[in-house]
Amino acid sequence: MADGQGSPYDGRPVGRRVALGLLGLGALGIVSGRHAQSALSSFLEPIQLRDPTGLTSLLPLGDTFRFYSVTGGVPIRDATTYRLEISGLVDRPTVLTLADLQAMPQTDLVRDFQCVTGWRVPRVHWSGVRLSTVLDRAGVQPSGRTLRLSSFDGTYTDSLTLDQARLPDVLVALKMLGGDVTHDHGGPVRLYVAPMYGYKSVKWLSGIEVTDAVVPGYWEHRGYDVDGFVGRSNGRGIDERT
Amino acid sequence: MSAPETGVPTEAGRTIDRFSRSSRWVHWLTATLMTSCILTAAVLYNGSLAVIVGHRYLVEQIHVYSGIALPVPMIAGALSRAYRDDTRRLNRFTHRDWAWLRSRTRRDGTIEVGKFNAGQKLNAALSAGSIGTLLISGLAMYLTNLAPLSWRSGATFVHDWFALAVGLLVVGHVWMATRDPWAMTGMRTGRVPLSWARREHAAWAREVAGDPPIETADHRSRT
Asked: Which of the four, A207, B52, B53, B134, has the lowest number of CB atoms within 10 Å?
């Protein structure tokens, strides 16, 4: 321009380049998947361990549990008040206390916890009673095909077929992460379905009803696959089976 | 375009138009949706808050729909000529913008600033790019049949870090705004005092009010 000030529309379109650059960076991060997350986690882990302020714990470093609850509050149940009711198409409708479950044969597993939205906690130590053992205690009738699992949060439900429920790595979990299952993790007793996404691992497990057909559970009503196998559902390929 | 040099004396306390109704609507709708996203994100992300609030499905739905709606005001704003003009000004960086960013005395008016200073331009670009990235990574996480799990893990990673960055950007933006009440008045009412504009956005004030160019500032800005 004649006065040397230039028009406000002169100059380079840096704004657009910055915005597109961020989009490209984001796309790269998505496609590189877990690798970028792992690299950053291993880079920041030593810093986090030596951080006296605890502020780095607010950073999204991954590989930690995120607490999901679908209700406003969940009542607290302990060894005296906890009950697990097995009902439906069974020979002996059964109510088990925490002590009953603790007296049954325990199985230990070290397996990943994989959420359908993408986060994963590697190598979690789980311990509890095989679901098949619990089912045998009540005696499943021949007409029983499926399970309807419910939570004492009063809202959450989920389903498993009997074949899925009898897999050896499906536990009625009493311990995780080296201690009793805490309330926030779904304690005192939760389900752990190792081969499936986290939404199949019902927290605050209180009811197992044997039915003759699948009744879709809470998230399944909202679009997630009923057969939530990690590796064969919700868009995941058969790689990375954990 | 340079304004005609009318030489008309300006009265004290005169105010001028800064933001059109459309630009203000886009700003405040985006601000509302962004606030909704940030509050619900805090509950979804922070374990202690999640345990207190619960109701994950409801919180998630509010977050998802606020997020999907977030770019809509900006896209709809393209219908307005005044808003398009603002985005064109925000998009363009001149050598003076770079000098302003590098300067330690950028606020003394030596480097003449147009309608937006370089910090505001950067904020706009970073916000726009981040909102787009958050939308894409958020959709990848939400529509679980859309992408393979590896991509969803990557999307979670990207979404987390961009969200953290955008949170800091918003905090910085609000902090800068609270330090300049006239800037906030401009975004609230659309008008600002000419005296403020001359101090903070001299080149733009001259463009709007038709003041003669300031020789010294012009000279120095070209060196």
From this structure: B52
Contact B144 A222 (CB under 8 A): no
Length, in residues, of chain B: 223
Q: Which residues of A touch B145 (CB under 8 A)?
A: 234-235
Chain A neighbors of B161, CB-CB under 8 A: 29, 60
Q: Do B151 and A31 touch (CB under 8 A)?
A: yes
Residues from chain B contacting residue A34 (CB–CB below 8 Å): 150, 153-154, 157
Q: For the residues of chain A, what is the DSSP string, one character each?
A: -TTSS--TT-SB-HHHHHHHHHHHHHHHHHHTTHHHHHHHHHHHHHHHHT-SS-GGGGS---SS-----SSS------TTT-EEEEEESBSS-EEEEHHHHHHSPPEEEEEEEE-TTS-EEEEEEEEEEEHHHHHHHH-B-TT--EEEEEETTSS-EEEEEHHHHTSTTEEEEEEETTEEPPTTTT-S-EEEETTB-GGGS-SSEEEEEEESS----HHHHTT--SS-BTTTSTT--STT--
pLDDT on residue B48: 74
Query: Which residues touch A160 (CB under 8 Å, ≥6 apart)?
Result: A131, A146, A147, A149, A170, A193, A200
ipTM: 0.81
Give chain A's mean pLDDT. Answer: 83
Q: What are the tens digits of pLDDT across the range A37-96?
A: 677 767 766 666 666 666 666 666 656 677 777 776 788 898 899 999 999 999 999 999
- The answer to whether A114 and A62 are in contact (CB under 8 A) is no
Nearest Cα neighbor of A34 from B162, B153, B221 is B153
Distance, CA of A137 to CA of B113 (rounded, Å): 79
Phi/psi at A87 (5° precision):
-140, -170
Please enumerate in sequence order all residues whose Cβ is within 8 A of that of A214, keeping only pairs 6 or more positions apart, or say none.
A146, A159, A161, A226
Please, what are the domains in chain B?
A: 15-94+114-209 (1.20.950.20)
pLDDT at A7 over 50: yes
